[in-house]
Amino acid sequence: MATPAIALLDQTLPFGVGVGGGGGGGSDRLSKEIFSILESNFLFGAQALEPAGACSAGRVRVLSIDGGADGGALAAAALVRLERRLQELSGNPEARVADYFDVAAGSGAGGFLAAALFARRMPAEAARDVVAKNRKVFSGRHGRGGLFSRPEAVFRKVFGDLTVRDAAKPLLIPCYDMATAAPFVFSRADAVEAEAFDFPLWQVCAAACGVGPAEVASLDGRTRLRAAAAAGGTGAGVANPTAVAVTHVLHNKREFPFAAGAGDLVVLSLGGNAAAGSGARASSSSLLRIAGACQADMVDQAVSMAFGESRATNYIRIQGNGITAGATAEAAMAERGVESVLFRGKKLMPQTNGERLDGVAEQLVREQHRRMDSKTPVVLIKPSATPRTSSSSASTLITVSTNSSSESP
């Protein structure tokens, strides 16, 4: 299918006519449709091209969390806002973000947030506090000695003996293995099947943030990875895990039997604040942060195109607009949202990030109520073969800080 499309593109756009140039409205629209088809096939396979319609069994709810140049600060603030709204709408003050999503994926600091919510069932405010009190660890600005000689202690304290399979629901944390020069995804679905794919959560999250041990080993020692360490919270080189999460759902018929296309999903993707690293001096770490932000935006645009007409309701991306430099993550909730536009960069949306999150909360609660009245399960999550009873998996929450007094920027 790709060859005819490329040939058609060559015939439509004569040499010297840019696809984003002015005056080419027809070719611009055609190019957008062609690239949408190509990227949909590349990301999700032919099923994504089917008409987007709500699945009769309901929609799979996907949460994707970036690391971001701000070390997960904006994502953490967004999760707090979302959880409060879910509690208000449901009338349950004990409601948690994890109760309203079926799968979570996270990279860098986002990997920690996803694991904390889904494996520790940590309230969003508690997870935000851990990130806030250890900003240098999560943003990749920790030192190589002194107080931060063992930054992985943060993750040991939070997760204890918990492993990937202890997550209550599907959990995905992508990384890059330097030993094989290939991507690797820490996945609960794989961990439940075999200990060769089950890893200590503290090691996984530390590796995702680029502060873990040189080697990450599975419980039985059969699988070993040498995760790449990168600054800026991108950890093992994966900035935006949304495509990882969506492809996992669409190609995992055992756990998500009715998810056939984009119309059967509702995806909340939490990014970072573009203004976080705007004032940094040119350095290798700042260049890595820029590269991570570029990769995250490219994934955002490709996924948005793959959702097509349903992206307004089924795909919601929350990120800072980069205008209010130095603003807090909470202040970013009052900023107008941004949307990637093919060949046009980004545009401001009429709604603020906070208003869009409130809209997502309403969708999630409606889906929860619909499932209570339905006899058809949307997801079929396989339980762990041997549930752990370690004291580290208790519901007691721990506020962690390596040394909060030294965490000033």
From TrEMBL:
Residues 63-246 form the PNPLA domain. The keyword Electron transport does not apply. Keywords: Hydrolase, Lipid degradation, Lipid metabolism, Plant defense. Residues 384-402 have a biased composition (Low complexity). One of its GO terms (molecular function) is hydrolase activity. Pfam families: Patatin. It comes from the Eukaryota. GO terms for biological process: defense response; lipid catabolic process. Its EC number is 3.1.1.-. Residues 368-409 are annotated as: Disordered. The nitrogen atoms of the two glycine residues in the GGXR motif define the oxyanion hole, and stabilize the oxyanion that forms during the nucleophilic attack by the catalytic serine during substrate cleavage. Belongs to the patatin family. Lipolytic acyl hydrolase (LAH). This is Patatin.
